[in-house]
Each structure stands twice: as structure tokens, then as C-alpha cells.
Amino acid sequence: MMPTALRSESHLAGTTIAVRPSTNFVKTPAIQNLANRSLGYLREGFPVHFRGPAGSGKTTLAFHVAAQLGRPVVFLIGDEEMTTSNLVGGQYGYQYRKVVDRYVHTVLKYEEGATRSWSDHRLTTACREGCTLVYDEFTRSRAEANNVLLGVLEERILVLPVPNQNESYIKVHPEFRAIFTSNPQEYSGVHDAQDALSDRMIMLDVDYFDRDTELAIAASRSRLSESSVAPIVDLVRGYRASGEYDQAPTLRTSIMIARMVSAQKLRTSTAEPRFVQICMDLLGPRTAFSSRSADQRQQQSKMLMSLIAHHCSGREAGDEGTAERLGPEAEPAAAMNQQSGSHVRINRMQAKEARRRGDGTRQGTS
Ligand SMILES: Nc1ncnc2c1ncn2[C@@H]1O[C@H](COP(=O)(O)OP(=O)(O)OP(=O)(O)O)[C@@H](O)[C@H]1O
Ligand SMILES: [Mg+2]
Asked: Which atom, in ligand 1's list, is nearest to the CA of 24?
């Protein structure tokens, strides 16, 4: 059943997002478990913090959970430049008032005045109206900016940085809820979350999903079957397990490759040069150019080619995925993690697999 869209509240237009559960959202037991746990905490009034590496599905999950709460969503993205006023609002400009009174024609009464005009920003709107705040990557904002959340989350009072006429505090609406996300592995442009703020949230780790979940998501997002995306997902997971990169390949990479395969109707095979090129384009640059010598980059490319050969042995898209045929033995990259010179190890495993299949292919084991 498709849930109905939220009523659009005109006075909130431009500040809030009316979200509804997406039909494209994939619910596997792992995702459902996380969603249910977080909803339980949120319904009780506790803020929830999804913490996990890039591409692990934090923001998507935050919106999914927010949609279940059935309130308008206020969406914020943490930023180094964020200030308390950016979050809460402030006095911007003046409102002029001029009265010319000639009620008694011989008397001219003249009054003129100006008051600073206050403007609510998104956190204030969320607190006043009982919205669900989704504060994505909140650790990108400095602790000073986020301090205002301490009172909001604990005492449920929003302290205005400068009084709005006679209003210095706002009582937080009982339906206000907050969902935060952060990436603990990110080192560029992030700050440590202050203990006091973290202590007010329930932190749920959103790690890389299990294989079944990644298959289901990659298939749904590319409109291919799970068996078609299996070689891609296994390739990306294999590369991730290898540890031979500076920036981990994520589910997002699997989705991108799968979408290109779908759009260009490619085979997920080493016999398909465009497929191999796409894999190399999307996976290759995950190593910082400057951190490796030309030789190391060449080794890296060879390793990637070995992984592609291992996982994408040439079935047409729609056939059973290579890894499904190989079964649990097909985790070469996990083995690579334990030993350098990893492509050699993969070749050995490929040779072993070839022997097991009895296809008589001779492969070097040097
Ligand atoms: N349950 C799901 N159903 C469908 N697609 C999903 C699901 N979870 C994640 N995705 C897709 O996976 C990709 C990564 O998800 P998302 O952007 O939520 O990750 P993230 O952890 O927020 O990443 P980042 O830290 O880089 O912002 C997106 O393309 C998203 O649409
Ligand atoms: Mg995100």
C-alpha cells in the first residue's frame, strides 16, 4: 500500500519538505531492523544518530525513518560556515512605521519608528512547528554552532541568540524529533561531535550492508535483476575487502556501475571492453594519485583487472552471477587483505576454481 503524501502546509513552504515513504526504498531484514529500532527511540522522543562510512545508506535511512513519523521534515547539512544564527534565525533588516495624523486639521501628529525584523531559520521552524529535523553530516558544523541543540534536545527549549522582540526562548513542540547522521571515517572538514551532544542522542552504527542488502539495492536502483548485479556487487565488495585503496568503494559505486550496465545494455564480462572500462573508471581512482608511484598504480590496475576477471567471467547480464556460482569460496579480496602481492593470490584462486570447474584452463601460479 502506498502511503499518502503529507499535506502541504503553506506557511512552511520553502522551509520544510513533505516526505512520504518511497516505493524505491529497499527493505531487507538488516534495514528493517535498523529502521524499527530507530523509530522506537524517536517515538519515545529520543534523537537518533546514524553513524557510518560514506555510501552506507545513512541519509536514505534518515529520510525513510522521518517519513514514517508523518511530520514535515526540516533538512540541514552540516557546514564549517554554519553559525547559531544560520540555524536559529536572527534580526535581519528593519520594519519602518510612519503615522501622519491630521484628525484635527489644525494639529499635525507625526510618528515614525523602526523595529528590527526577526526571521526564523530552519531549526526554529522545526522546533515551533513540531517537524522532524534531519541534520545530515552534523559534525561538519563547528561545535559552537551546534551548541544550541543541547537545550533543544534535553530541556526542549530553544534559546534564541538574540531576542525576537519580547521572545528569548521557544518551547519546543512536543512532536519535534531529530535525526542526525555523521561519517566517523571522514577526516576532511569534520569536527568531533561534542560529548554533551553525543550523549543526548542514540547512536546507531550503519555499517556497509550485507551482500544480500547490497544486491537488493543495486538491483532496485538499476532495474536489473539481482543475479545480473551480483558480479558487480561482488567485485566492489571484493575490492573493498582488499583494503588496497585510499577511498573505500561503496554501495554507491555498485549502483553507478549497475546503472551504466543497464543503460548501455552491457555484459558484466571481461569480454565486454566498455564494462571493463567503466569498472576501471569508477574503481581505479579510489587510490590517491599522489600517494602511489607509477609502478604502484600499474600494480593496482593489474589487481583490479584480476578482480574483474575473477568476478565477471563472461556471463550475459541476467545470467547467474559469477560469485553465486563460485559460492563462499569467492572471497579473494578478504584473503588479499591478509597478504600483499594480492593479485598473485587471486590468480591462484582463479586457477583453483578453473581446476574445480574442470575447464582445463592453465593459469600461472607464480
Ligand atoms: N534502503 C535503500 N533503498 C534504496 N536505495 C538505497 C537504500 N540505502 C541506500 N540506498 C542508495 O545507496 C546510495 C548511498 O546511500 P546514502 O546516500 O544514503 O549513503 P550515505 O551513508 O548517506 O552516504 P554519504 O556519507 O556519502 O552521504 C544512494 O544512492 C541511495 O539511494
Ligand atoms: Mg549522506
From this structure: 4
